[in-house]
């Protein structure tokens, strides 16, 4: 099984598994409870908070894709992160997280730390000296998010995992941006992989969900126990939908990336576009590490708009094929202004520290025709140029 390629695992998991009617596509089980076959005989599934066939299939697909031993499907990516800290950290323990992590992750860790649930330190994980100093404090958990959001900065997973082992810390990688199609953190030494399946895994912007995949059986069981205990599990319908979206993950990821590379070369020729952030660019600080640990560069990119702030707003509002919206990884192209949208909860000081300026725009390149997307960017930039 595990020698199969990601696209095959994504398509085949659960196909022809129905024993009642031999449905080719696995049916949906909405029942909240399951009969005990006999007195004292506990069935595989008894109550949907603890387990469900649709969730089970999605779990299997995702842990096989990531090369893990088990997975827990949660009701969103944030709750996967919350489950992870709930299961493995206590009041005196320290967690090290990236200073440019997803805004909701920052809010979750910061708020819980302020309540005294644990200690947290947000570190620039691309800065070797800062990371070494943080590790010297013997953290219990380390979260990596690579490439990061929105500046797609790249952290050397293998190197951090080796350092973490020496101080006895467990490492989780938020792999939302690349998916197992382009990056498999467990094979680089990580203990856990976390996804917001809301993004590329489901891929159609119609389900909120999350997953945490464990490298060991023991960790997988601990997390499943905690998911049942705190009520973090996802619903059967959402798992059904997410597995349906997952089927096309391989071809989607390739198409997203192909279009991104075309858009990148267009953007590079434009005077109104300043610094561009994407791991494929040789000038990108993480380019070499990305080539080593990723099998693709992914399709999230961001750039500084080199006109005025007013012109930036004009540029964004004149686009027809990039919707001004949060989230990412769906079939539809999106444009986001992180400072006033996804990352606004960080506050000015943290934004500045993370290098997220008011001129920064982030694109999630969808599956529309790349030429149409470029033509759309072009008409809007031209309007700005002609109306300066
Ligand atoms: C969206 C996102 C999350 C949070 O996931 P939700 O499903 O919105 O709760 C966490 N990490 C990254 C990188 C994300 O993009």
UniProtKB/TrEMBL annotation:
One of its GO terms (biological process) is transsulfuration. Keywords: Pyridoxal phosphate, Transferase. One of its GO terms (cellular component) is cytoplasm. The modification N6-(pyridoxal phosphate)lysine is found at residue 199. Gene3D superfamilies: Aspartate Aminotransferase, domain 1, Type I PLP-dependent aspartate aminotransferase-like (Major domain). Its EC number is 2.5.1.48. The keyword Transferase applies. Its cofactor is pyridoxal 5'-phosphate. One of its GO terms (molecular function) is pyridoxal phosphate binding. CDD domains: CGS_like. Belongs to the trans-sulfuration enzymes family. NCBIfam families: O_succ_thio_ly (TIGR02080), PRK08861.1 (NF006463). This is Cystathionine gamma-synthase. The gene is metB_2.
């Amino acid at each position: 099984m595990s020698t199969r390629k990601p696209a095959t695992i994504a398509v085949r998991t659960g196909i022809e598994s129905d024993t009642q009617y031999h449905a080719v596509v696995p049916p949906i089980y909405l029942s909240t409870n399951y009969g005990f076959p006999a007195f004292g005989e506990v069935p595989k599934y008894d109550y949907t908070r603890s387990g469900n066939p649709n969730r089970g299939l999605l779990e299997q697909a995702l842990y096989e894709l990531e090369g893990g031993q088990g997975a827990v499907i949660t009701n969103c990516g944030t709750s996967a992160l919350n489950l992870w800290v709930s299961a493995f950290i206590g009041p005196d323990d320290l967690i090290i997280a990236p200073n440019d992590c997803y805004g909701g992750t920052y809010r979750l860790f910061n708020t819980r730390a302020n309540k005294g649930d644990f200690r947290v330190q947000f570190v620039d994980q691309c800065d070797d000296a800062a990371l070494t100093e943080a590790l010297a404090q013997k953290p219990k958990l380390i979260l990596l998010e690579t490439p990061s959001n929105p500046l797609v900065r790249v952290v050397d997973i293998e190197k951090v995992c080796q350092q973490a082992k020496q101080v006895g810390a467990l490492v989780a990688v938020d792999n939302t941006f690349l998916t197992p199609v382009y990056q498999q953190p467990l094979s680089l030494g990580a203990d856990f992989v976390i996804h917001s399946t809301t993004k590329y895994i489901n891929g159609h912007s119609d389900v909120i969900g999350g997953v945490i995949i464990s490298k060991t059986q023991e960790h997988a069981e601990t997390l499943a126990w905690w998911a049942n205990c705190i009520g973090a599990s996802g619903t059967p319908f959402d798992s059904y939908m997410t597995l349906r979206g997952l089927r096309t993950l391989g071809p989607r990821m390739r198409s997203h990336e192909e279009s991104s590379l075309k858009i990148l070369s267009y953007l590079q020729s434009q005077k109104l576009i300043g610094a561009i952030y994407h791991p494929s660019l040789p000038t990108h600080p993480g380019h070499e590490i990305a080539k080593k640990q990723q099998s693709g560069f992914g399709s999230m990119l961001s750039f500084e708009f080199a006109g005025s702030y007013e012109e930036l707003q004009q540029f964004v509002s004149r686009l027809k094929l990039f919707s001004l919206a949060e989230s990412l990884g769906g079939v539809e192209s999106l444009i986001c202004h992180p400072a006033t949208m996804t990352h606004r909860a960080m506050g000015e000081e943290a934004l500045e520290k993370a290098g997220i300026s008011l001129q920064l725009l982030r694109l999630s390149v969808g599956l529309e025709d790349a030429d149409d997307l470029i033509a759309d960017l072009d008409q809007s930039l031209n309007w700005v140029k002609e109306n300066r």
